[in-house]
Design goal:
Layout: E1 3-11, E2 14-23, H1 26-29, E3 38-39, E4 43-45, E5 48-55, E6 66-76, E7 81-82, E8 85-89, E9 95-102, E10 106-107, E11 114-122, H2 123-128, E12 137-146, H3 161-171, E13 177-181, E14 184-188, H4 190-196, H5 198-205, E15 213-215, E16 218-221, H6 226-238, H7 246-263, H8 266-277, H9 285-294, H10 298-308, H11 311-320, H12 324-331, H13 333-339, H14 347-354
Amino acid sequence: MATFYSASAIVGGTVTGQYVYQVDGYSRTKEIPNGKQIHSRAFWVGDCCWCISCYPNGAGPSCADYISVFLNLVDAITKPKVRPRFSLLDKEGKPVPGHSRHTELGEYLVVGARHGLNDFLKREFLEASEYLVDDCFRIRCDFSVPASIRTEDRAPPLSDLQRHLGDLLVAKEGADITFRVSGETFSAHRFVLAARSPVFRAEFFGATREGTTTTGDCMRIDDMPAHVFEALLHFIYTDSLPEMTGTEESTMAEHLLVAADRYGMQRLKLICEEKLSRDVDENTVAKLLRLAVQNHCHTLKETCIEFLKDPPSLDVIMATDDGLFEFVAIRCPVLLKELWAYEDDPIHDDLLMCL
């Protein structure tokens, strides 16, 4: 996605800026799902770092026939109020009449805030117009922010490599490997996967073929849910987890921990361990201890062991999980030594039976 930025200027106590975002390969963006976005690179206007996000097939179900655009706050020293204006540009770079609109005045109070237009441009209009040239179109964003006097050096914009790689995954541009996972198909790039995972590197460029079946450029994975593999790809490309909440986050962390161990992705594994360690309680400790031992997770295992050192808690857990005694005796002998000190506790006799 090519982008062009014209420098900002200070006028009457405000800093005005223009940013022209050229979206290349429009025909390919039609494959991007509704609700998925692509981004411009980051740019500065005033004391704030911004980027433009574009939803080629709409930001939500209600605007699926439109292209949605937003001005996003990436980094800031101030908390500006901004009313951006988005314009479709013609061949000469001038706004197209009837397709230049302001948003409502928006407050950018936190990093990540955004304001824009869900129904900026109808795709049917663009495809039939003269403004789609060589499979490209251009959007200009004009806006102003309050000016301030600053003497310190301005830091360069934050890295947008992860954003660009995420866009590459969504757009599938240049993809050279297909995965068939539990009935769903995913496209990816061999070199990206190989750079992030030693197991993928061996599968693509070595003789290893563990847990997969390969036919040409299609690799089948039969023992992983599709939504887990999708989250794994998201992390590989963006180094971040998809947005999740509550129970969904905990369940996904369990699945991704197993996937991280399988594909040798230590950073993802540690992130999942940290999340799951916060979830250890009487209802989850038995399950998470097994998960930690089976997937060689030292941090999570130690958290579970510390929790089980409390005799009342262990008594309750053992009463509801008949197999935990045997599992602890065989796989966690260190824990048995810790519990051995509680000879007056009623669980002591049960521990003896496990030996």
